[in-house]
Amino acid sequence: MAPADHPDEFPPGSPEHADTTVTFCMCCDCKLRYPMGSTCFRCTVCDTVNDLHDRDPAAAEKQRHQPLTLAVLRQALEDHRRGKLSQGQFKHLLGETFSHWDRLNHSFGNGRPTTSEDPGVALAEVRDAYRLILDLSPDYVRTMMRAIERLLRRPSRTLRHKEEVRVLVILLENPLLVQYTFPRETAYHHQITKRLLGLLSCLSNSLHHDLVRWFSQLPLALFRSRVEWVNQFITHRLTKYRRLTAAGTIRSAMPYESDWCFKAAARVMSLLFAANKLRQVSIPIPDFYNSMVDFVDLPADYDAWQQRSGQFAFCQYPTLITMGAKLQIMRLDARRQMDSKIKEALMTNILRNRQTEPFLSLQVRRQCVLEDSLNQLAARETDLKKKLHVKFADEAGVDAGGLTKEWFMLLLRDLFNPMHGMFTLDEESGLFWFNPASLETSDQYFLVGVVLGLAIYNSTILDVRFPLACYKKLHNASVGLRDLRELRPSLARGLRQLLDYPGDDIEEVFGLTFTADQDIYGRRHAVPLIPDGVNTPVTRANRGRYVRRYIDFVLNESVTRQFDPFRRGFHLVCGGNALSLFHPEEIELLVRGSSAESIDWDQLKSVTVYHGFDPEHDPIIAQFWALLESWDGQRQRQFLVFVTGSDRVPVAGTPMFTFQITCLGNGADSDRFPLGLYNYATPAKLEEKLLRAIQESGGFWLK
User: Fold this and answer.
1) How far apart, in whole angstroms, are the C-alpha atoms of residue 498 and residue 513?
2) Which candidate among 20, 53, 95, 377 keeps its CA 20 to 30 Å from the CA of 40?
3) Which letter does DSSP use for residue 401 in this model?
4) How far is CA 581 from CA 327, 585, 587, 650, 698, in A?
5) Nearest by Cα to 448 from 422, 467, 487
């Protein structure tokens, strides 16, 4: 059948057009037109035969009564070895089972009905069955794989109910799908994989919810292998396009945008990512990244995604994009916006003869950092997307990054000062949260949001210890008991004990009512969670509601007045399409950076720029690096705080540092993260001075 949007096929108003209808292929999701009254059609894009009605219901019913089980397979193997079952008969058993949807769909049952929590498949038996078959000669394996290919080319039915997709669960267990050893084998398994991914991706939303639940219950190693399988498919296909592009066969900058296979694979990866969030033990987000995606033209991909072209773009599925690549996109987007603001300022100067600054320039007094910053940022909301430059009043110095970093550090020190009461610190978790009883105005919280946004926008790491719940809320994602456990572990444990308590005497044992305890400057207050909550006891029947209301109160309701202006300030600076590429966990890394334990000092050496020193011949440089590497972790972190204001490293790793060492006495402030050194006579003198600097200073360039 022709694609529905084909310009030469069945033009509107023609007799052929009146006798046709439109549907979507069950494998590649392409929109196709076919004659009315047809019982099936072959997709011209992926070559899948789509049956519009269940094919031969009587035959299907017969197949359901001939399922394959592990016991049946073992008995057949035993009969085959003893000569009771010929080679042809055993191949016929494999071929019939793996080429008929209904028969395979009812094979390997676990005796339970198919539900959203249980596919009804004995997965351990399926794995054992595959192992038995793969131990046979290659002829039998080929018989099985050819049968699977026939099955996927024509499923012979529509897939509307969860009971009908057990086949896909069984086929996903096939270990050959991840086997890419020889070219012919790779091509063959790749063809089967693309059809399996296509069918999975085109299921309805309700079936996708079921798949997510089923995926979330897989053993950790098996779940990780599913993620690797999808990434392997994407890598293989991208490598093929790179090879064709290098040979000049393909000239498009984005040859993948019209390839349905990428969309199918990306959709399935999204299902796996959703399942990962439901797992008790999840795999890290970087396990979903595909490093080959870094080699595509991501700026062009990002632009196509923003234009809503309707074609596939990797930015639609940011789970696949590495943090380094996302940072490049975000910095490109920030640079474009900054350049736009500079051009706008210059045009205003020329056309309107009105003086405007191309930068967001702040001049603050050290003793009034908070007040001056709040007043100037509030007055210049329209300039927040300009490049930030900071000057301290009555101090000489040109800001090339160091003064901005110090301004962030001093401002946050004021904002998080316990005397202001804007945030509370949980002693057990060491994390800050918004103080629901704060007397500060919404402007102060707006400023905190602006500061976090400016830090991301200006590629600055901040030592801000908010829980993941904060970044989830910025992302409009829901929060729950797991988030409360990170912020207030003791409270979360108590709520978990309440949920897990087996007895019926909850009222007597726990003695709770529908109220939440709130600390208001040292005094406990009971806040009703529902109308008349003070007089509503928590029972076995309503404890779930109580826990949900308590979590919502702590993380949402009680801090609405504080969080809303914070969110508004954050999104005013860096809200937009580029930020939406990041998951909440990645936004946290953008703000805080990675742990200092991950710093690679050899890499830092390789990206360091020297001014006034010859690193090959000046002994002070070798002594400096030897001294750093000899220090323990605590002193190394102190050093990072001294030169960067934080003991964390950029999320994309040490190479993202633009570290510079300047010989003092030759004049100017250098670029970001400058370190000024005198040419000390001995290593001992160097250590003495450097230790004094990092232990006694409170900012940059303190001698």
Assistant:
1) 13
2) 95
3) S
4) 10, 12, 10, 18, 35
5) 422
Q: State whether 145 and 245 are in the same domain.
A: no
Same domain for 62 and 40?
A: no
- Based on the domain organization, do 94 and 9 belong to the same domain? no
Residue entry with tokens 């919502």: 552
Average pLDDT of adjacent 10-residue blocks, the chain of 703 residues: 46 56 90 82 91 66 74 93 92 93 92 93 95 93 94 89 93 88 79 95 96 96 95 93 84 84 96 95 94 92 86 93 89 78 71 69 88 86 81 70 79 85 92 92 89 84 90 93 95 95 92 90 86 94 95 96 94 85 91 71 80 83 86 80 70 65 54 63 84 67 29
My answer on whether 59 and 49 are in the same domain is: no
Q: Taking the alpha carbons of 391, 394, 397, 403 in that order, is the dihedral positive or negative?
A: negative
In a domain, 536, yes or no: no
- The model carries a pTM of 0.83
- Taking the C-alpha atoms of residue 603 and residue 605, their distance in angstroms, rounded to an integer, is 5
- 141 and 209: one domain? no
Q: Are 294 and 325 in contact (CB under 8 A)?
A: yes
Could you tell me the maximum CA-CA distance found in the chain, to the nearest angstrom?
A: 99
**How many domains, the chain?**
4
For residues 140 and 185, membership in a common domain is answered with: no
End residue of a domain, out of 167, 199, 216: 167
DSSP state of 427: T
Q: Domain check: are 71 and 47 in the same one?
A: no
DSSP designation for 387: P
> Would 525 be classed as within a structural domain?
no
* Residue 307 placed within a domain: yes
- How far is CA 172 from each of CA 106, 235, 427, rounded to the nearest angstrom? 16, 19, 46
Same domain, 317 and 193: yes
Closest C-alpha to 168, from 200, 215, 133, 192: 200
Which residues is 51 bridged to in the sheet? 40
Phi, psi angles (nearest 5°) of residue 519: -90, 115
| Assigned domain for 161 exists | yes
Q: What SS3 state is found at 18?
A: helix
Q: Write out the residue range of the structural domain in which residue 239 sits.
A: 174-321
Distance of CA 320 to the CA centre of its chain: 8
DSSP state at residue 109: B
* 266 within 8 A of 312, measured Cβ to Cβ: yes
